[in-house]
Amino acid sequence: MIYRLMAVASAWLLLAVTARAQTCNPHIPVVAADSRYEVLASEAEVRDSRTGLVWQRCSLGQNWSAGRCNGTASALNWQGALQAARVAGNDWRLPDIKELQSLVEDACQSPAINTALFPGTVNDWYWSSSPVVTYPAFAWYVHFGSGNSYGDAKSGERLVRMVRSGL
Fold this sequence. Notes:
By secondary structure, the chain is α+β, with helices and mostly antiparallel strands. It has helices spanning 2-19, 78-88, 97-101, and strands spanning 23-24, 37-39, 45-48, 54-56, 63-65, 68-70, 108-109, 125-132, 135-143, 148-153, 163-164.
């Protein structure tokens, strides 16, 4: 009986670990290849050669250290996310929905982003600065688990990735 329980527990542990790994479909063309991005001198930022935008590699609340994002991503309501970007200075801002969608890697999910350049991206919702025109209390966000975009109440808490215009 103990061996059977251990086998079941091991199977569940393996399933839990593999369920968190990014999966990519080799039959869908990659749109956010490593070659599209240039890692900048600080290594905490990348420039997207397609859009010219500079992105923070880590989510707000995380910090870049030893080649990866460390810490826990911070969830904020929409006004808090806009304010956090203003306070960050250095021309950082919350991306609009089209800018944020440009990071989505169509060939992958969980997360739907280039994990070599944006490691530690959470399979969760990330705010954009774009309000939903028909519902003023809503704003757009991208779910990086699936890569889909949604509109929801600005009072909800979502994660943040900041952007600025290219230098």
